[in-house]
Amino acid sequence: MTRLRKWQIQGLFLVFLLLTLFMIPQLQVYYSTQEKQLLSVGEPLEILLNLPPSLRNAVDIYICAGQKLLAMEGQDLKQGKYILGDNAPVVIEPGQVSLELKLFGLIPFKKINVDIVPEIRLMPGGHSIGVLLRTEGVMVVGYSPILNQDNEPCFPARDADIKVGDVITHINDVEILTDDQLQNILGKVSQHKQKLIITIKREGKVLKRTVYPEYCYETKSYRIGLFVRDNAGGVGTLTFWDPVTKKYGALGHLITDSETNQKLQIRQGKILSAYIENVQKGRIGNPGEKVGIFLENTEYGNIDKNEQCGIYGTLNGELTNNQYNYAIPVMYANQVQTGKAEILTVVEGQEIRKYEIIIEKLLYSRTDGKNMIIRISDRELLEKTGGIVQGMSGSPIIQNGRLIGAVTHVFVNDPTRGYGVFIENMLFEAGIINKKKQILGFFPQDFVRNISEKMCYNVEKQKNLGKYDE
């Protein structure tokens, strides 16, 4: 055996040994601890590590910076370190604390920066809401053939490189706001057989395309061969609102066009009260749905933003919640634990009810509204809905009396299970907190998680609960 061959075998053995070590469940958690964490003033500086007691007692936490922000048993902390699992110091002022975790007080293995923010208390939602949106311009959702004098299909807009998902904002420098306006402009311009300079938005870029309308012998009019849409609507759930500023968040995910799956760029929008008349029960392969109607003259507020983790705006006034008539503190991602929790939602009329769920897994690195795998465990809710249904997205998730997130997706092949988003991601998008991007833990754990998630996707397809039809 050559020396090179021997080194290759030894190297492969070492890699195998390391991967085996890092796949041990407790050590996966140990190394995957987030390096950027959030904490509220007044809370103990606890680091959650799911380790056996023998290892927990062997971890010392050294305070590298921010010691003046902490107090131990009512006194300023002097030692500069404490033991994981013992009485942790309490944070007394906003700022940043830098920590280093050492095994047996000698072996450093993790540095953590903790951003200390003022306590945030929010009113939990659970209300069924109607969502009405007007898009910025009109979105191209498909192509419509134009039959010429030879009875052959023509597609002028498609041939001019206008694609499904593009947003038409101007025609010949005239701003386009609605599909009716687009039809009127086409009618006037086409009578003079003018070319059309169409301004579109595509993936954040502004482009211009020249289109020559064709006369359609079937409809007896000039057309450019597009299907467009200027609005969207549907039923969802309110997640939270700030009792002071009246800012709110809902849905927990992005609203996309039902035809193109593209993000809707909103021009204006509003949320209204919705009355749930019926629930179509979810089954394997066929997610259920809340069937509701929008109530007239019940506008709750406007919609300012349509983002990855929800829609946001400002309420017009006060709302009532029969389950919580007081604001509750939020819980950040690094504090959430697997296990029991509850959701607030409406399945009949306008009555908000509590239902039990289980948080099965935490996915810290996701930014698409899929931070928790949750399972409905409440027998009453399972009997009524079969699990998670469309219209339930945005239902607040509460653990230990604190708001931790919202329901976002359902697994098509198992409607009792789905995804939830961390509340801190919604607060970041709403502008309530300013949080830098989190840095995750050790690579091998992330590597294993990514492989397992890809396997999960093939078995359990997810359905976005908020792809609203026109």
Give a short synopsis of this structure.
This protein has helices at 3-22, 25-32, 53-56, 156-159, 179-191, 379-385, 423-430, 443-459, and strands at 36-40, 59-65, 70-72, 75-76, 81-83, 90-91, 95-103, 107-117, 121-124, 128-143, 146-147, 153-154, 167-171, 174-175, 196-202, 205-211, 214-216, 221-223, 226-241, 247-250, 266-280, 289-302, 305-307, 310-314, 328-329, 339-346, 352-362, 372-376, 396-399, 402-411, 414-422, 462-464. It has 470 residues and is of the alpha+beta class.
Model description:
Strands 9, 10, 13, 14, 15, 16, 19, 20, 21, 22, 23, 24 and 25 form a 13-stranded antiparallel beta sheet that branches. The protein has a six-stranded antiparallel β-barrel with strand order 26-27-28-31-30-29. A five-stranded mixed beta sheet has the order 1-8-7-2-5, with no helix packed on it. The longest helix has 20 residues, at 3-22. The chain is an alpha+beta fold. The radius of gyration is 27 Å and the shape is globular. It has helices at residues 3-22, 25-32, 53-56, 156-159, 179-191, 379-385, 423-430, 443-459; strands at residues 36-40, 59-65, 70-72, 75-76, 81-83, 90-91, 95-103, 107-117, 121-124, 128-143, 146-147, 153-154, 167-171, 174-175, 196-202, 205-211, 214-216, 221-223, 226-241, 247-250, 266-280, 289-302, 305-307, 310-314, 328-329, 339-346, 352-362, 372-376, 396-399, 402-411, 414-422, 462-464. It folds into four domains: 1-27; 33-117, Sandwich (Immunoglobulin-like); 124-130 and 232-464, Thrombin, subunit H, CATH 2.40.10.120; 145-224, Pdz3 Domain (Roll), CATH 2.30.42. Residues 437-470 have low confidence and may be disordered. Helix 2 crosses helix 8.
